[in-house]
């Protein structure tokens, strides 16, 4: 039996049209299914992860980087399960007791996102005049942040017992991030608060906001390097004098450690010390450039790394000296946190105050301080030679029996990894005048020691002279340091900042050398310090199901209409009719 060609040709276009319609609807269904959550990106935010590190193999900080949970606020109902919730906590509203409770009792959390005021953003350079209320608020925020940082990374970390480190573990089993307040994230938080207050927190059922950070698993950084930089200003040696000239060392540690490595700029600790050292190198290079004013002392300038890690860089730098050089050091002055004091600086020493060298140094500094209108105090702390833990940088010198002192605004020695450039140590809290006065104190005291002018009211670095302290120079370097995170090992050997320090010393001193060392194996750090946070507005499941029902009904109606108009009602009915059995077809 032959088919009618006319009939076949008339059916083929209709069948093709029908198949195309079916394929189009199938594609549409797949698109709808993939978009079932109907997520609208609300905003994208830069976030900074809580530091992850180990001490002697014991983990500290946050161990996770990936985040994918709904957003919540501190207004949640009592008893609510927060294991799949990321709490957004503005530092302005921080309940430190709540955070302590959740961390100490290891309660389950999906994650923490702390919102920092813009005053702590090193990219925010606004310098508007502040009211008394704003100054009080700023100081309050700083106090709160210091307490929060201690809780997250400083509480229960190594304490010294005898000659050993006693380790207490403090590890967070969920991601912890920091971000800065802005209009977008403030609007998101306001919506989240309203939902929480109304008793409808964000869940897969109710919808809300979802916070997503797609980050690789943090990896251990192998053999982190530390870089020490030194420069010399050689003194004037008399003809025929076989003796080696004495040396005065001026030292400052330049790297930092903080809760969030990508935000740890350490404007005061120890940006202020680095700025002071560079300006002192510049001032004495002017004196030593003229043979008539070159002193009979060598000046050694050292910018050391590994400061937060038990001054590991200073330890290795000093052991690179030969015995003759170490013996030539008359004394060393270490500069640490000198940028936010008012009326008093402190000289910390390891040798007893009755020691002749210590007495001479202190009297020289006290005389100059009195002339400049402030006070200098003396703090003595005995060290244990056999204990590897040191509190101040000068103690690394003292262990080698070199006379040394630390000049600082701090009255007590910081604990390990504390007061080393955290979130609260920003440019907004630096007093440039304090740094200028500190530089004048050190410069005048050292110069009078070199030229034998102790006790005389002589200003070598007087204002309005060619040897005056250069405030714009100080400000420019302070600005650079205050926007440059400097946490080892994220500050590599050839980092532009390290190269900038080297070049600056080369401009003012001679025989500039760079020493690369490996950080003590006791400390282990991990990468993944910064990420992008995507905030999505997610519709509820109920809404999704209702929408799918409406769209499904629409597709069925559309499909029915297309079949009827292209093939007729009989063909539509035949689609749902049970096909005849094989026996019937054979018959």
UniProtKB/TrEMBL annotation:
It is a single-pass membrane protein. It is found in: Endoplasmic reticulum membrane. The chain crosses the membrane at residues 545-569. Keywords: Endoplasmic reticulum, Glycoprotein, Membrane, Signal, Transmembrane, Transmembrane helix. GO terms for cellular component: endoplasmic reticulum membrane. InterPro entries: EF_Hand_1_Ca_BS, Nicalin, Peptidase_M28. Residues 247-361 form the Peptidase M28 domain. Belongs to the nicastrin family. This is BOS complex subunit NCLN. The lineage of its organism: Eukaryota, Viridiplantae, Streptophyta, Embryophyta, Tracheophyta.
């Amino acid at each position: 039996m032959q088919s009618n060609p006319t009939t076949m040709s008339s059916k083929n276009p209709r069948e093709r049209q029908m198949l195309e319609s079916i394929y189009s609807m199938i594609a549409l269904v797949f698109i709808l299914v993939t978009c079932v959550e109907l997520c609208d990106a609300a905003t994208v935010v830069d976030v900074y992860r809580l530091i992850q590190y180990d001490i002697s193999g014991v983990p500290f900080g946050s161990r996770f980087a990936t985040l994918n949970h709904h957003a919540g606020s501190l207004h949640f109902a009592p008893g609510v399960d927060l294991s799949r919730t990321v709490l957004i906590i503005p530092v302005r509203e921080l309940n430190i007791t709540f955070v302590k409770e959740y961390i100490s009792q290891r309660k389950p959390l999906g994650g923490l996102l702390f919102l920092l005021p813009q005053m702590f953003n090193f990219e925010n350079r606004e310098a508007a005049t502040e009211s008394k209320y704003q100054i009080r608020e700023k100081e309050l925020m700083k106090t709160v942040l210091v307490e929060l940082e201690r809780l997250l990374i400083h509480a229960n970390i190594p304490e010294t017992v005898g000659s050993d480190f006693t380790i207490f573990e403090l590890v967070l089993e969920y991601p912890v991030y920091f971000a800065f307040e802005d209009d977008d994230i403030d609007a998101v938080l306001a919506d989240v608060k309203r939902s929480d207050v109304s008793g409808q927190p964000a869940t897969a059922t109710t919808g809300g906001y979802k916070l997503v950070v797609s980050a690789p698993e943090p990896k251990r950084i192998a053999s982190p390097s530390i870089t020490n930089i030194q420069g010399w200003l050689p003194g004037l040696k008399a003809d025929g004098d076989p003796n080696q000239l004495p040396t005065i060392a001026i030292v400052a540690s330049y790297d930092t450690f903080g809760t969030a490595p990508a935000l740890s700029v350490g404007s005061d600790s120890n940006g202020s010390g680095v700025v002071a050292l560079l300006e002192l190198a510049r001032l004495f290079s002017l004196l030593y450039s003229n043979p008539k004013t070159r002193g009979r002392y060598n000046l050694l300038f050292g910018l050391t790394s590994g400061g937060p890690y038990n001054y590991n860089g200073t330890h290795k730098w000093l052991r690179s000296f030969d015995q003759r050089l170490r013996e030539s050091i008359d004394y060393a002055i270490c500069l640490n946190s000198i940028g936010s004091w008012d009326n008093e600086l402190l000289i910390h020493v390891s040798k007893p105050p009755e020691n002749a060298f210590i007495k001479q140094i202190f009297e020289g500094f006290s005389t100059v301080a009195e002339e400049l209108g402030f006070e200098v105090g003396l703090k003595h702390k005995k060290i244990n030679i056999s204990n590897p833990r040191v509190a101040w940088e000068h103690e690394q010198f003292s262990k080698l029996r070199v006379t040394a002192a630390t000049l600082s605004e701090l009255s007590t020695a910081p604990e390990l990894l504390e007061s080393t450039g955290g979130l609260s140590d920003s440019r907004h809290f630096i007093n440039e005048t304090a740094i200028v006065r500190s530089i004048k104190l050190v410069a005048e005291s050292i110069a009078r020691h070199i030229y034998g002018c102790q006790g005389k009211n002589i200003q070598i670095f007087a204002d309005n002279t060619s040897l005056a302290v250069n405030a714009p120079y100080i400000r420019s370097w302070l600005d650079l340091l205050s926007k440059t995170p400097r946490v080892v090992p994220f500050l590599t050997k050839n980092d532009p900042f390290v190269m900038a320090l080297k070049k600056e010393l080369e401009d003012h001193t001679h025989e500039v050398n760079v020493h690369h060392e490996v950080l003590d194996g006791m400390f282990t750090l991990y990468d993944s310090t910064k990420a992008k946070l995507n905030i999505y507005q997610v519709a509820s499941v109920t809404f999704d199901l209702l929408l799918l029902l409406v769209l499904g009904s629409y597709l069925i109606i559309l499909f029915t209409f297309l079949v009827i108009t292209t093939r007729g009602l009989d063909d539509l009915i035949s689609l749902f009719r049970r096909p005849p059995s094989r026996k019937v077809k054979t018959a």
